[in-house]
Write a structure and sequence with these properties.
α11 crosses α13. With 321 residues, this protein is an alpha/beta fold. A hairpin with a 3-residue loop joins β6 and β7. It is built from 16 helices and nine strands. The protein is elongated and about 90 Å long. The strands form three sheets. A five-stranded parallel β-sheet has the order 2-5-8-1-9. The protein has a two-stranded antiparallel ribbon with strand order 3-4.
């Protein structure tokens, strides 16, 4: 038995994700279903904060399997991603061996005989007890499966991308001193990218491609409802409409879903029942993270609030992102 039995259909995946607070779409659920069935990683691209990483965490919670996260960065190598040897423990055992050297050598009378006796301990230092498994190897060794999140793969080097491609092609890794370790249950692999650099064609061919953009008005409402308890329908509709309108403006960083959720919690703390200019001005820094964006939006607050209150914002249109 694995942890993947509930993934019987696209509809089951949608319902399962919703049960843990992730509001999926048919393209998202379809990609997850195919990733499981075809044993292919999913490469998810899209703006920051649209739920790429949260999809992996939600799958882990729903399926009740471990989430192994590998955060990519420039200079990441296979030692940090796959495994390392516990050098400190090896040194400690070396010291112990040194102190017990006479007991180890025993009655050996020649140098050759002494080296032969010491040679019996060589493999000990490169055995399982000295192996420090990193996320890739740990994911391969989960008996009931796992979700492996390779976050921001575009921040890693091309050399690491090639290494990762090799690992994911057969879901196995080779430790020269121990041998090949194969995944009994291949992990569900999710790679995320914010398009810092163009990924190689080989990796893209190996993966299922999924783009997640900003949600439309209805889906964003459902996301906020799933994460924030006690928010009124009126306030929810108005604040989501306001956020959707902001995303259509020419600003440096459009507010993410996470920032919409934080703003909903903020308005509840302030006991807001409807959106008004005062609440918006006082809390705009929760939505926008650049001072230039705040200054740019501030002049439009009266108009945006009126549009949100009257339903004239982007509520009826799908997000273009």
């Amino acid at each position: 038995m694995t942890g993947y039995e509930p993934m019987t259909s696209i509809e089951a995946i949608t319902a399962g994700l919703e049960s843990v607070g992730y509001i999926s779409t048919r393209p998202i659920s379809t990609s997850v279903f195919l990733a499981h069935g075809l044993r292919k990683p999913i490469l998810i691209e899209g703006p920051a904060g649209v739920g790429k990483t949260d999809l992996a965490a939600s799958l882990s919670r729903w399926l009740d399997v471990p989430l192994l996260r590998l955060q990519c960065y420039e200079g990441l190598d296979e030692g940090k991603a796959l495994y390392e040897w516990k050098y400190g423990k090896q040194l400690l055992y070396t010291q112990i061996l040194k102190e017990k050297l006479n007991d180890v050598i025993g009655d050996a009378q020649t140098l050759e005989a002494s080296l032969s006796e010491l040679g019996t301990f060589e493999d000990l230092f490169f055995s399982e007890q000295f192996l420090e498994a990193r996320p890739l190897l740990t994911a391969m060794r989960q008996s009931a499966g796992s979700v492996l999140l390779v976050d921001e793969i575009d921040k890693s080097d091309e050399e690491f991308e090639a290494f990762l491609l090799e690992v994911l092609s057969d879901y196995q890794v080779t430790v020269p001193e121990i041998g090949t370790i194969r995944a009994n249950v291949p992990p569900i692999v999710i790679l995320t990218s914010n398009n810092v650099r163009e990924l190689g064609d080989a990796l893209k061919r190996r993966c299922l491609h999924l783009h997640i953009g900003f949600p439309d008005h209805k889906r964003e409402q459902r996301i906020v409802q799933a994460r924030v308890e006690g928010i009124s329908e009126t306030l929810l509709d108005q604040m989501v409409g306001f956020v959707q309108s902001i995303r259509e403006l020419d600003i440096k960083k459009r507010p993410s879903i996470a920032e919409t959720v934080d703003w909903a919690k903020t308005l509840l703390l302030l006991h807001a029942n409807t959106l008004d200019e005062t609440f918006v001005r006082d809390t705009l820094n929760v939505l926008l993270k650049h001072e230039s964006d705040i200054a740019s939006v501030t002049t439009d607050i009266p108009k945006l609030v009126r549009q949100a209150a009257s339903g004239q914002s982007a509520s009826g249109r799908a997000s273009p992102y």
